[in-house]
Every structure is written in structure tokens, then in C-alpha cells.
Amino acid sequence: MNTLRRASINKPDEAGKAWPAIAIGLFVAFGGVLYGYDTGTISGILAMSYWQRLFSTGYTDANGNPNITTSQESGIVSILSAGTFFGALSSPFMTDYIGRRPGLMIATWVFNLGVALQTASTAIPMFLAGRFFAGFGVGQISAIIPLYQSETAPKWIRGAIVGAYQWAITIGLLLAAIVNNATGKRNNTGSYRIPIAVQFAYSLFLFGGMCILPETPRFLIKKGKHDEAARSLARIRRLNHEHPAIHAELTEVKANHDYEQSLGKSSYLDCFRPPILKRQFTGCALQALQQLTGINFIFYYGTKYFQNSGISSGFTISMITSAINVASTIPGLYAIDKWGRRPLLLWGAIGMCVSQFIVAMSGTFSTGQHDNGVIYVKNLAGQKAAVSFVCIYIFFFASTWGPLAWVVTGEIFPLKTRAKSLSMTTATNWLFNWAIAYSTPYLVDYGSGKANLQSKIFFIWFGCCFLCIAFVYFFIYETKGLSLEEVDQLYDEVTVARKSKHWRPTESWEHRQSVSGPAGKVLGNEEGQVSHNEKNEV
């Protein structure tokens, strides 16, 4: 019994029910399936022989088969990320004015437009247009979902709920691998149209659910709609809107927002000024480094990479890596709220760093290359070791950096700039996603003007993972178990990230407002209260 108690996540004794908020957060996380599936389909589609023949503009590959050029491949893969970049940046214009809920509903229809264009296409130009619009919708969705989740989730399990968005992404990647494997050998347009058109079902399911879900109470407080905020929170907590617990929670949210507003109106420039600047850098750097770990190299180009490495069934390996991605995210969701953000990100970076180095060494020395660029395996055991450590790397990523990038960025910003700040951190994710998607064929492939790195590209990912270790130690604050308003107070009072582990709030925002001076400046202790028990901090 004691073992079970130690293993469980501590739920505070609070009024109302927790399950409605958990159910809402998990449903909204389903939007990650759109992101993951759209990302996962392109790897398989690019390897389909019928698609290669249909979309080829006259180029033939090293084996003499019709195919697309490296520049065309880069454009097709990376155009999605270009769309998501602009989609993420555009999201605050909806979420800060019409709301988180309607913004998400509109984004699903932008995504549907892109899916329709891709499904109808038989040539590269329309396919590119479809991927851009689908990306624009996915970019909006990827910025809005963590925002909606973080503003509705109970603080004691917020990490798992927001992290479930990443789990949904992994499920989308797995579904894409399964559908691609089922249709990839068809000798007609169904080979690529079926995997693409399936996305309509996912999008309509999300849209239908959002029609009945509530707006977030924090957005309603931001807009001055206090009665609507009380009714929304009461619906989420399953309490009467006049219950004292509803009043107390909203009073704290309002006090925090009033303090932020007393410092001036919100603008994008505020995100790059103290005290938000440090958080903005942390969020953008975290999302950039998540991409620089190399995860999307596996899921964008994995099928072709494994085929080129001498493995007979790249599709099968892609399904295996996608399944590992899904399964490995589950223990990470538990650990986020049990052990915290800092230790998971730190140990995850160490595990990825070691795995990437072994993959680079094993892959480089176990394969050779003919004069025409065709890869052959000269050490089967070494190649199997490389594939095995790719799977181990995916485990470390999926259980740590995968979900935690969304969790941390979703909770570190104040309500005043949250939508704007989140849009920029998400856009950073997609900017680096685009850069990797566009440059990878030139870095990996054989030919004139290409680096022909092949497995050596994993040395680059190894170096980036090493950088992740230092970044976590110096910049990531521990926010486990804190409300969003308490996280704001944490950044206000603690200046060194490693000292955040033992910080606990000593006063409410309502009390801070009552003793504040001009322009909302709080009088009294400016250093905050941090426990002196800081031994063995991570």
C-alpha cells in the first residue's frame, strides 16, 4: 500500500470534480492526431512508386525509376512547416479576440481546405498548395490546443493533460504509418488519396466536440466577462457558479490579470521586454531544441532512410518506430506530474545524446556506398544496432522532450501575453521544423551539391542533444503542482532556475494586489521564499 501511495500523483483536496476538466483536456488533445498524421503521411507517400511516377516531372533516380528531384522533395516536405509557421503566428488574432474555442473550430476548416486540395491533386503545384493550407491550419491548432488545455486543466495533473497533446501526435504518426503501409502498393491514385482523405474524419470529429465544449474561464476573465467565466468554471468543476470555491479561484485569476494590466496593455513588444523576455527565450529555445534533437528526421525521411540503408522494408521499420513513439509517451505523461519538468528534460537529453552518438557510429561504419550513390550494408549486426538505438532514442524523446516542450511553454506565460507568447514559441517549433525538413535531403542524399552525410547526420543531432543538457540546467524552472498564476509569481520571485524546485507561494495574488503600490508594484519582500533544502537539486 505504501508503495502504491508513493507511486501515485498527489491530488489536493479541492471542491468539485476533477474528471470533467481532465476529459475536456484529453478530448482537445485529439487535435494532435491531425499534426502527427499529416507529418507522418508524407514520409510514406514520397516512397510510393505510383506517386513517384505520377508526380515525376521527368527526373529518374539512381535505380532508373521515375521520381522527383531533391529540391522538389524538400519543397513538398517543408511547405507544410512554412504553412504551420504562419498559422501559429496568426493564432492570437483569433484566440485573443473571439476566443480559444471558436479559434480552434475555424482552424479545423482551414486544415480541411488543405486536405481537399491534396486529395484532388495529380501534380506538384496543387499538392504544394494543399500542404501549405493544411500546414496553416495545423499551425493554428498546435498553438491553440496547449493554450486551451493549460487554461482548463487542474494544476495537479496539468502536465499530463497538456502532454497528452504530444501523445495524440504520436498516435497520428502511427496511424499514418499503418494507412500508408496498407495503401502504399496500390497501383492507382488511391495509394496516396486514401491516406490524405482520412484526415477529414479526424478534423470533423474535433470540430464536432468543440461545438459543445466551454470557453476557458481565463479568456473570459481577460475579456471582462466575469459572470460567463463563473459559469464556465462551474461547468468544468461541476459546481454551482455561486460556490465559494469558484469565487476564490476566479478572484485569484482576476487579481493576477489586473496586476499584469496595471503594467500596461499587451503587445508583441512586451514579449521581448523584462520580465517576459526570459520566459520568451526559454519557450522559443525549448521548442527549437526539441526539433534539433532530430526527431522529425525519423518521421519525415525515416522510410526512405531505412530503405537506403539496406533494410528491405522501410515501411515496417517506420511502423515499429511509430509504435514505440506512442507507447513511450505514456510513462512520460505519468512522470511529468510525479517527478517534475526539470529532471525529465535533463535525463531525456542525456539519453538522447548517448543514443544519437551510437546510431551515428554504428550507421557510419556498418554501411558502404557504390560509385552511383547506392548504399550497401557491410556489417549487418552494426546496422541492426543502429536501428535498435534509433528506437531507444525515440523512447527517450517520447517520454520527455516530446510532451514537455508543449507542457512547459503552455504554463510559463502570464495571461496578458499568453496567446501571443505561445504563438511565437509554436512558430519557432515550426520554423526549425521547416529548416530541418528542407535541408535534410541536401545533407543526407548523394549527388552534386549535396553533403551525402547518410548516417553521419546523427552526429549533428548528437551535438544538439548535448546542448539540450546545458539549456535545461540553466533555464528550465520547476513548475510541477503550481497554478498558472503561481507560475507567474515563481518567475517574479526566483531568478535562478535550479532554485525553483523547492519554491512555494507564500501569498496570493489577491493579497499582493491589496498591498501593491503605484503601477502594481508589490511592496515588501522582493526576493521570494525559497526553501533552504537545495541539496541534490536537478
TrEMBL record:
NCBIfam families: SP. It is found in: Membrane. The keyword Secreted does not apply. It comes from the Eukaryota. GO terms for cellular component: plasma membrane. The lineage of its organism: Eukaryota, Fungi, Dikarya, Ascomycota, Pezizomycotina. This is Plasma membrane low glucose sensor. Its main location: membrane. GO terms for biological process: glucose mediated signaling pathway. The keyword Disulfide bond does not apply. Keywords: Glycoprotein, Membrane, Transmembrane, Transmembrane helix, Transport. Belongs to the major facilitator superfamily. Sugar transporter (TC 2.A.1.1) family. The chain crosses the membrane at residues 21-51, 75-94, 106-124, 160-180, 192-213, 344-365, 385-409, 421-438, 458-476. Residues 507-538 are annotated as: Disordered. It is a multi-pass membrane protein. Gene3D superfamilies: MFS general substrate transporter like domains. One of its GO terms (molecular function) is carbohydrate:proton symporter activity.
